[in-house]
User: Which sequence fits this backbone?
Protein backbone atom coordinates (compact mmCIF):
# COMPACT_ATOMS: atom_id res chain seq x y z
CA UNK A 1 0.00 0.00 0.00
CA UNK A 2 1.41 3.41 -0.89
CA UNK A 3 1.78 6.14 1.72
CA UNK A 4 -0.86 8.12 -0.18
CA UNK A 5 -3.41 5.31 0.16
CA UNK A 6 -2.67 4.82 3.85
CA UNK A 7 -3.48 8.46 4.68
CA UNK A 8 -6.48 8.73 2.34
CA UNK A 9 -9.48 10.21 4.16
CA UNK A 10 -12.53 8.00 4.61
CA UNK A 11 -15.59 9.36 2.78
CA UNK A 12 -18.45 10.43 5.06
CA UNK A 13 -21.26 8.04 4.08
CA UNK A 14 -23.62 8.96 6.94
CA UNK A 15 -27.00 9.66 5.24
CA UNK A 16 -27.73 12.33 7.88
CA UNK A 17 -24.74 14.30 6.56
CA UNK A 18 -26.08 14.73 3.05
CA UNK A 19 -25.65 18.24 1.54
CA UNK A 20 -29.20 19.59 1.60
CA UNK A 21 -28.51 23.00 0.09
CA UNK A 22 -25.77 23.36 -2.50
CA UNK A 23 -25.19 27.08 -3.09
CA UNK A 24 -22.67 26.46 -5.89
CA UNK A 25 -23.82 28.47 -8.91
CA UNK A 26 -26.53 30.26 -6.87
CA UNK A 27 -26.50 34.05 -6.55
CA UNK A 28 -27.57 34.09 -2.89
CA UNK A 29 -26.77 37.79 -2.43
CA UNK A 30 -28.87 39.01 -5.33
CA UNK A 31 -31.73 36.51 -5.26
CA UNK A 32 -32.30 36.13 -1.52
CA UNK A 33 -31.13 39.44 -0.05
CA UNK A 34 -31.43 42.10 -2.76
CA UNK A 35 -34.41 40.89 -4.82
CA UNK A 36 -36.03 39.49 -1.66
CA UNK A 37 -35.98 42.97 -0.05
CA UNK A 38 -34.71 41.68 3.27
CA UNK A 39 -33.16 44.90 4.64
CA UNK A 40 -35.00 44.52 7.94
CA UNK A 41 -33.85 40.91 8.45
CA UNK A 42 -30.26 41.91 7.61
CA UNK A 43 -30.42 44.77 10.13
CA UNK A 44 -31.92 42.48 12.80
CA UNK A 45 -28.99 40.04 12.36
CA UNK A 46 -26.50 42.89 12.65
CA UNK A 47 -28.08 44.31 15.81
CA UNK A 48 -27.78 40.87 17.44
CA UNK A 49 -24.21 40.24 16.28
CA UNK A 50 -23.05 43.64 17.57
CA UNK A 51 -24.49 42.72 20.95
CA UNK A 52 -23.03 39.23 21.13
CA UNK A 53 -19.63 39.08 19.42
CA UNK A 54 -16.58 39.77 21.63
CA UNK A 55 -15.04 43.20 20.96
CA UNK A 56 -11.64 41.77 20.16
CA UNK A 57 -10.46 38.35 19.01
CA UNK A 58 -7.27 36.90 17.57
CA UNK A 59 -8.65 34.15 15.33
CA UNK A 60 -12.25 34.15 14.20
CA UNK A 61 -14.23 31.99 11.75
CA UNK A 62 -17.62 32.64 10.14
CA UNK A 63 -19.03 29.12 9.70
CA UNK A 64 -21.26 28.70 6.62
CA UNK A 65 -20.51 32.37 6.14
CA UNK A 66 -21.53 32.46 2.47
CA UNK A 67 -20.36 35.52 0.53
CA UNK A 68 -19.48 37.35 3.75
CA UNK A 69 -22.71 39.31 4.12
CA UNK A 70 -21.85 40.01 7.75
CA UNK A 71 -18.06 40.30 7.44
CA UNK A 72 -18.03 44.02 8.14
CA UNK A 73 -19.42 43.22 11.60
CA UNK A 74 -16.36 41.17 12.61
CA UNK A 75 -13.45 42.45 10.49
CA UNK A 76 -12.84 45.28 12.95
CA UNK A 77 -12.96 42.91 15.93
CA UNK A 78 -10.72 40.05 14.76
CA UNK A 79 -7.01 40.08 13.90
CA UNK A 80 -7.49 37.09 11.56
CA UNK A 81 -10.87 36.32 10.02
CA UNK A 82 -11.82 33.27 7.94
CA UNK A 83 -15.02 32.44 6.11
CA UNK A 84 -15.76 28.73 5.93
CA UNK A 85 -18.40 27.45 3.50
CA UNK A 86 -19.25 24.49 1.27
CA UNK A 87 -19.96 26.70 -1.76
CA UNK A 88 -17.03 27.77 -3.93
CA UNK A 89 -19.32 30.36 -5.56
CA UNK A 90 -20.00 32.06 -2.21
CA UNK A 91 -16.34 32.00 -1.21
CA UNK A 92 -15.22 33.47 -4.55
CA UNK A 93 -17.72 36.33 -4.01
CA UNK A 94 -16.32 36.91 -0.52
CA UNK A 95 -12.77 37.08 -1.90
CA UNK A 96 -13.91 39.52 -4.59
CA UNK A 97 -15.30 41.87 -1.94
CA UNK A 98 -12.75 41.55 0.84
CA UNK A 99 -9.54 40.42 -0.89
CA UNK A 100 -6.67 39.83 1.53
CA UNK A 101 -8.64 41.11 4.50
CA UNK A 102 -10.28 37.71 4.80
CA UNK A 103 -9.21 34.07 4.40
CA UNK A 104 -11.60 31.55 2.89
CA UNK A 105 -11.79 27.81 3.42
CA UNK A 106 -14.04 25.36 1.60
CA UNK A 107 -15.37 22.17 3.16
CA UNK A 108 -18.24 20.38 4.85
CA UNK A 109 -19.67 21.31 8.25
CA UNK A 110 -19.57 17.68 9.42
CA UNK A 111 -15.80 17.49 9.05
CA UNK A 112 -14.38 20.97 9.59
CA UNK A 113 -10.91 21.33 8.07
CA UNK A 114 -9.50 23.01 11.19
CA UNK A 115 -7.36 21.67 14.02
CA UNK A 116 -8.71 21.41 17.56
CA UNK A 117 -8.74 24.73 19.46
CA UNK A 118 -8.01 26.89 16.38
CA UNK A 119 -10.27 29.88 17.11
CA UNK A 120 -11.20 32.14 19.98
CA UNK A 121 -14.41 33.20 18.28
CA UNK A 122 -16.84 31.84 15.72
CA UNK A 123 -20.34 32.48 14.47
CA UNK A 124 -22.83 30.44 12.47
CA UNK A 125 -25.81 32.44 11.20
CA UNK A 126 -28.77 31.21 9.12
CA UNK A 127 -27.32 27.76 8.61
CA UNK A 128 -28.92 25.34 11.11
CA UNK A 129 -31.92 24.88 8.82
CA UNK A 130 -29.61 23.13 6.32
CA UNK A 131 -28.29 20.59 8.85
CA UNK A 132 -29.97 17.41 10.04
CA UNK A 133 -27.30 16.12 12.43
CA UNK A 134 -27.00 19.09 14.76
CA UNK A 135 -25.31 16.98 17.45
CA UNK A 136 -22.34 16.42 15.13
CA UNK A 137 -22.33 20.09 14.04
CA UNK A 138 -22.22 21.27 17.67
CA UNK A 139 -19.45 18.76 18.43
CA UNK A 140 -17.38 20.13 15.52
CA UNK A 141 -17.92 23.76 16.54
CA UNK A 142 -16.87 22.96 20.11
CA UNK A 143 -13.79 21.09 18.92
CA UNK A 144 -12.36 23.97 16.87
CA UNK A 145 -12.86 26.56 19.64
CA UNK A 146 -10.09 27.33 22.12
CA UNK A 147 -11.03 26.95 25.81
CA UNK A 148 -12.57 30.27 26.81
CA UNK A 149 -13.65 30.83 23.19
CA UNK A 150 -17.07 32.16 22.20
CA UNK A 151 -19.58 30.85 19.63
CA UNK A 152 -22.50 32.96 18.38
CA UNK A 153 -25.04 30.58 16.88
CA UNK A 154 -28.38 31.37 15.27
CA UNK A 155 -31.06 28.69 15.09
CA UNK A 156 -34.21 28.44 12.98
CA UNK A 157 -36.99 28.32 15.58
CA UNK A 158 -39.94 25.95 15.03
CA UNK A 159 -41.92 27.27 18.04
CA UNK A 160 -43.14 30.63 16.71
CA UNK A 161 -46.63 32.14 17.01
CA UNK A 162 -47.51 31.83 13.27
CA UNK A 163 -46.42 28.17 13.35
CA UNK A 164 -48.60 27.60 16.44
CA UNK A 165 -51.62 29.10 14.67
CA UNK A 166 -50.99 26.98 11.60
CA UNK A 167 -50.94 23.91 13.81
CA UNK A 168 -54.04 24.87 15.88
CA UNK A 169 -56.04 25.66 12.72
CA UNK A 170 -54.91 22.42 11.08
CA UNK A 171 -53.02 24.17 8.28
CA UNK A 172 -49.91 22.21 9.24
CA UNK A 173 -49.39 18.90 10.97
CA UNK A 174 -46.04 20.00 12.44
CA UNK A 175 -46.47 20.26 16.18
CA UNK A 176 -44.34 23.29 17.22
CA UNK A 177 -44.41 22.15 20.85
CA UNK A 178 -42.78 18.80 20.14
CA UNK A 179 -39.18 18.95 21.31
CA UNK A 180 -37.54 17.71 18.12
CA UNK A 181 -36.48 18.98 14.74
CA UNK A 182 -39.09 19.39 12.03
CA UNK A 183 -38.59 18.81 8.32
CA UNK A 184 -40.24 21.42 6.10
CA UNK A 185 -40.78 19.38 2.96
CA UNK A 186 -41.68 22.28 0.65
CA UNK A 187 -38.59 24.26 1.62
CA UNK A 188 -36.25 21.25 2.10
CA UNK A 189 -35.08 22.53 5.43
CA UNK A 190 -35.18 21.87 9.15
CA UNK A 191 -36.57 23.96 11.98
CA UNK A 192 -35.58 23.38 15.56
CA UNK A 193 -37.28 23.50 18.93
CA UNK A 194 -35.03 25.80 21.00
CA UNK A 195 -35.02 23.42 23.99
CA UNK A 196 -33.87 20.54 21.77
CA UNK A 197 -30.72 22.41 20.76
CA UNK A 198 -30.20 24.06 24.14
CA UNK A 199 -29.93 20.59 25.67
CA UNK A 200 -27.38 19.63 23.02
CA UNK A 201 -25.30 22.77 23.71
CA UNK A 202 -25.27 21.86 27.39
CA UNK A 203 -24.46 18.19 26.85
CA UNK A 204 -21.54 19.22 24.64
CA UNK A 205 -20.16 21.39 27.45
CA UNK A 206 -21.12 24.87 26.24
CA UNK A 207 -22.13 27.49 28.78
CA UNK A 208 -24.92 29.85 27.62
CA UNK A 209 -23.96 33.47 28.25
CA UNK A 210 -26.84 35.24 26.49
CA UNK A 211 -29.93 34.56 24.36
CA UNK A 212 -31.68 36.98 21.95
CA UNK A 213 -34.94 36.76 20.02
CA UNK A 214 -34.12 38.05 16.52
CA UNK A 215 -36.20 39.13 13.49
CA UNK A 216 -39.25 39.54 15.69
CA UNK A 217 -41.19 41.51 13.06
CA UNK A 218 -40.47 39.32 10.04
CA UNK A 219 -43.72 39.95 8.18
CA UNK A 220 -44.29 41.41 4.72
CA UNK A 221 -47.14 43.57 6.02
CA UNK A 222 -45.20 45.03 8.97
CA UNK A 223 -42.23 45.75 6.72
CA UNK A 224 -44.49 47.63 4.30
CA UNK A 225 -46.27 49.65 7.00
CA UNK A 226 -43.31 50.59 9.22
CA UNK A 227 -40.21 50.34 7.01
CA UNK A 228 -36.75 49.16 8.03
CA UNK A 229 -35.79 52.17 10.16
CA UNK A 230 -38.77 52.01 12.54
CA UNK A 231 -38.75 48.21 12.70
CA UNK A 232 -35.01 48.35 13.49
CA UNK A 233 -35.74 50.53 16.53
CA UNK A 234 -38.51 48.18 17.69
CA UNK A 235 -36.23 45.21 17.05
CA UNK A 236 -33.53 46.63 19.30
CA UNK A 237 -35.96 46.72 22.22
CA UNK A 238 -37.64 43.40 21.43
CA UNK A 239 -34.50 41.22 21.13
CA UNK A 240 -33.73 40.93 24.86
CA UNK A 241 -37.35 41.42 26.03
CA UNK A 242 -38.74 38.53 23.96
CA UNK A 243 -35.74 36.23 24.45
CA UNK A 244 -37.17 34.43 27.53
CA UNK A 245 -40.14 33.16 25.48
CA UNK A 246 -37.97 32.37 22.42
CA UNK A 247 -40.47 34.36 20.31
CA UNK A 248 -38.84 35.05 16.94
CA UNK A 249 -38.06 32.79 13.97
CA UNK A 250 -34.34 33.30 14.72
CA UNK A 251 -32.94 32.66 18.18
CA UNK A 252 -29.35 33.73 18.82
CA UNK A 253 -27.08 32.17 21.46
CA UNK A 254 -23.81 33.43 22.83
CA UNK A 255 -22.05 30.29 24.07
CA UNK A 256 -18.73 29.80 25.77
CA UNK A 257 -16.42 26.81 25.75
CA UNK A 258 -15.31 26.90 29.41
CA UNK A 259 -11.67 27.68 30.09
CA UNK A 260 -9.61 24.65 31.18
CA UNK A 261 -9.41 25.77 34.82
CA UNK A 262 -13.20 26.30 35.16
C1 LIG B 1 -28.57 30.79 4.19
S1 LIG B 1 -26.85 30.82 3.81
C2 LIG B 1 -26.20 31.80 5.14
C3 LIG B 1 -24.90 32.50 4.83
C4 LIG B 1 -24.43 33.50 5.90
N1 LIG B 1 -24.20 32.85 7.16
C5 LIG B 1 -25.40 34.62 6.05
O1 LIG B 1 -26.08 34.71 7.10
O2 LIG B 1 -25.51 35.43 5.13
C6 LIG B 1 -26.35 29.19 4.26
C7 LIG B 1 -24.91 28.86 3.91
O3 LIG B 1 -24.63 27.54 4.39
C8 LIG B 1 -23.74 26.92 3.47
N2 LIG B 1 -23.82 25.45 3.65
C9 LIG B 1 -24.87 24.65 3.40
N3 LIG B 1 -24.56 23.37 3.68
C10 LIG B 1 -23.27 23.36 4.12
C11 LIG B 1 -22.39 22.35 4.59
N4 LIG B 1 -22.77 21.08 4.65
N5 LIG B 1 -21.14 22.71 5.00
C12 LIG B 1 -20.77 24.03 4.96
N6 LIG B 1 -21.55 25.02 4.53
C13 LIG B 1 -22.80 24.70 4.12
C14 LIG B 1 -24.23 27.38 2.12
O4 LIG B 1 -23.28 27.21 1.11
C15 LIG B 1 -24.60 28.84 2.41
O5 LIG B 1 -23.54 29.72 2.12
Assistant:
Amino acid sequence: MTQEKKTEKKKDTNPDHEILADYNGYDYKKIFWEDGKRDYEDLADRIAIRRLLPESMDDFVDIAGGYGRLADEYLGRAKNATIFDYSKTELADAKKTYGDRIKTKQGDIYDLPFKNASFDGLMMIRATHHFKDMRKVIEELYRILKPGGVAVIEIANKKTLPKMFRYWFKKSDINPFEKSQSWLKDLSMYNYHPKYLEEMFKEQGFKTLKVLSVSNFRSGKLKKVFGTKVLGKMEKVAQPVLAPIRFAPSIYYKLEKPAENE
The beta strands are 57-63, 78-85, 103-106, 119-124, 145-156, 181-184, 189-192, 207-214, 250-256.
